[in-house]
Amino acid sequence: xxxxxxxxxxxxxxxxxxxxxxxxxxxxxxxxxxxxxxxxxxxxxxxxxxxxxxxxxxxxxxxxxxxxxxxxxxxxxxxxxxxxxxxxxxxxxxxxxxxxxxxxxxxxxxxxxxxxxxxxxxxxxxxxxxxxxxxxxxxxxxxxxxxxxxxxxxxxxxxxxxxxxxxxxxxxxxxxxxxxxxxxxxxxxxxxxxxxxxxxxxxxxxxxxxxxxxxxxxxxxxxxxxxxxxxxxxxxxxxxxxxxxxxxxxxxxxxxxxxxxxxxxxxxxxxxxxxxxxxxxxxxxx
Length: 286
Hints:
The protein contains 6 helices and 15 strands. By secondary structure, it is an alpha/beta fold. The strands form 4 sheets. It has a 6-stranded mixed β-sheet with strand order 7-8-9-10-11-12, covered by helices on one side. Strands 3-2-1-13 form a 4-stranded mixed β-sheet. Strand 14 and strand 15 form a beta hairpin. It starts with a strand and ends in a 15-residue tail after the last strand. The relative contact order is 0.14.
């Protein structure tokens, strides 16, 4: 059974919900084979002026989310429409990604764990999130600055993610470094990583998709609006981990059962050979 999925990374500047709906309907009709549509960080929550985060934040489930869910169901697609300023149960504001399934239901939410400080004032989340794409594999979510912390992708890969979606709004000069970090995370964890950045003037573009061997499968060299389409073969994760990156290195097979745990003083914990293998626990959203 094929585990290949058509994926569209939409490198676009911030927009209104009505413009978003029109753009996605038109784009989906032009690319009917694309089943997963991914948009940049804060795609619908970045007004032209400096955003008043406290005023913009709303609980998940307002009218916008109902419209987005209905749109995903209408088009029969998996939809990641970027991230939103979410007013959490505690009253604090989070930078939160939402995933809609082809039935229009919310399949996953994720609050950004590493806000870009000091500029980003949102409260950090505390939970790594993966969700299942039935028939294909698992997908993990990271938001922009999360990708700079190797612990983030490592935990998503350990929880079974085959593909990491990195939703970005980078308009600073370090996009070059981010491109290297994205590729490094794909190689070190033997996973697919898709980094979709906002187009100008919201961001600097240069979105890309990297496979588990570290090869760049598609990329944008500009900050202009663009839809990048490709096919993600989830089975390639299994093949690279079995045969090794470049047919050589197998970091997920590093430990033997009788190896002693390795202390990690920075975290107050350790690497245990018994828990090192990915896809433990089954069905994780952890």
